[in-house]
TrEMBL record:
InterPro entries: DNA_brk_join_enz, Integrase-like_cat_sf, Integrase_catalytic, Tyrosine_recombinase_XerCD. Belongs to the 'phage' integrase family. The keyword DNA-binding applies. It comes from Acinetobacter sichuanensis. Residues 182-401 form the Tyr recombinase domain. Pfam families: Phage_integrase. Keywords: DNA integration, DNA recombination, DNA-binding. This is Tyrosine-type recombinase/integrase. CDD domains: DNA_BRE_C (cd00397).
Length: 451
């Protein structure tokens, strides 16, 4: 963003509460806390108070995390308010001001969904301000408020019994209509194959192997960017050396500030063999040659030996998409959407059901089933799965067996693709006969003379 009005602060001590037993103030140590200011450099008190409010809601701050995302969204409003030359207090803003702000966002050719997202976060910020200054008339639903909101259609649907009933979703008349296209739609198999073909054009075989493993990790596990970069060598070998008929790969679920949870994803064994090949032949040698302490993470920069960042993954996907002529560019979350959708589709086929309303009822009413689905995806709330409900109709009984069955199907598809690629690498001289035989032991194929 041009002329940023925020920066990340580390080692920040934030007051939490006063302990009566210890007779002293208790502080929280915070990392990557966004600090917001006006374009002239003067701190914005209300925006920073809002950041602290969000921080105490246990939001992620990893590399900025959700907190940085929200700071970025409301920074547009801070610039707009500054341009008013403080002609009015924040608590005196009107519906006209808010409407002008939303319309101003269109000048930079933002999509409708982007404008709505900025607008919704700004609404939440203004609701915070109304509470901060005890000015309930500032913003709300109806004509009695200075800024007049509407309840969104989602808020009028039948409430989830497991969800906080005080939760509402607001919109505003100035918001652009929702675009029909869905930027978060699952990536197609055609585009995945285009990305693979583009990656394999790289003359550096080490980079090819690493990048294909990254792509496989996204597709097979539905990992978020921040979860992919924290995959460890130990995780891979623990799964590979297990006695499970279907290996389970441990992923860190990085969505909370003060806790890291884990989930186990069934993966094809050949996927793990491929990553172990990268670790053994490429990654470990780079770490050794750079003479640096081994940090234990799988995916590294081949220049520095350090763990790659989530932004680097985004850059890779953008570059591969550009070179493969995929527009708009592929992004990591599209793989996650494909992973969830494909899992649900496999379960539907397994149970031969076709009533999404029944699935929704079962999913909400049965706690065991809810946890089974959530632990695969790493979502924090059951509502996050609602976009996939029309694809997912299953029975409660046998859900685990169905998941394993769907994984077996995925294994066969992955093995076929890997068999083709490993033989191509052998033909091109990128791997020797010994490496090929080691890899193909899992296929029970006897290798003859090289072609």
């Amino acid at each position: 963003m041009k002329n940023k009005v925020y920066s990340l602060q580390n080692n920040v001590a934030i007051f939490d509460y006063y302990s009566l037993t210890k007779e002293k103030s208790i502080f929280l140590q915070a990392q990557n806390i966004p600090f917001l200011f006006y374009p002239n450099g003067v701190p914005c008190f209300e925006a920073n108070a809002y950041m602290l409010h969000l921080f105490k809601q246990n939001l992620s701050t990893l590399h900025g995390g959700s907190l940085l995302t929200y700071a970025t969204l409301i920074s547009h409003f801070i610039k707009f308010y500054y341009a008013l030359n403080h002609k009015c207090l924040l608590t005196n803003l009107t519906n006209n001001h808010f409407t002008n702000f939303i319309h101003s966002l269109s000048s930079d050719e933002r999509s409708s969904s982007q404008i709505r997202r900025i607008g919704k976060q700004t609404i939440d910020f203004l609701i915070f301000i109304s509470n901060l200054y005890s000015k309930p008339s500032l913003i709300g639903v109806g004509n009695n408020f200075q800024i007049k909101l509407l309840l969104s259609k989602k808020a009028n649907r039948k409430k989830n019994p497991y969800k906080d009933k005080s939760t509402h979703s607001y919109t505003h008349l100035s918001f652009p209509t929702t675009q029909l296209s869905n930027p978060q739609s699952p990536i197609s198999l055609t585009n995945i194959n285009k990305l693979r073909e583009q990656i394999r054009k790289n003359m550096n075989y080490g980079c090819v192997l690493r990048n294909l493993c990254i792509l496989d990790l996204f597709q097979i596990t539905g990992a978020r960017r921040s979860e992919a970069i924290f995959l460890t060598v130990e995780d891979v070998y623990d799964a590979l050396n297990s006695n499970d008929s279907v290996p389970l790969l441990t992923l860190r679920t990085l969505k909370r500030r003060d806790s890291i949870t884990y989930r186990k994803i069934p993966v094809p064994k050949n996927f793990l063999l491929n990553i172990s090949r990268y670790i053994r032949n490429i990654r470990n040698k780079i770490i050794h040659n750079k003479n640096i302490k081994d940090h234990g993470f799988v995916f590294i920069s081949h220049t520095t030996g350090k763990k790659i960042s989530s932004d680097t993954l985004t850059t890779y996907l953008n570059n591969w998409s550009r070179d493969a002529e995929i527009s708009p560019p592929a992004h990591a979350h599209q793989f996650r959407h494909r992973f969830i959708t494909e899992k649900f589709k496999s379960l539907i086929k397994e149970h031969n059901k076709n009533n999404s309303d029944e699935f929704r009822k079962n999913l909400i009413s049965d706690e065991v089933l809810k946890q089974e689905v959530l632990q695969w995806t790493g979502h924090s709330q059951i509502d996050s799965l609602s976009p996939y409900l029309h694809l997912a109709v299953i029975e409660l009984a046998g859900i685990t067996n169905a998941c394993i069955s769907s994984t077996a199907s995925m294994n066969a598809e992955y093995d076929e693709m890997q068999l083709y690629e490993i033989i191509e690498d052998y033909k091109l001289g990128k791997i020797d006969k010994c490496e090929l035989e080691t890899f193909l032991k899992n296929f029970k194929i006897i290798i003859g003379n090289p072609p």
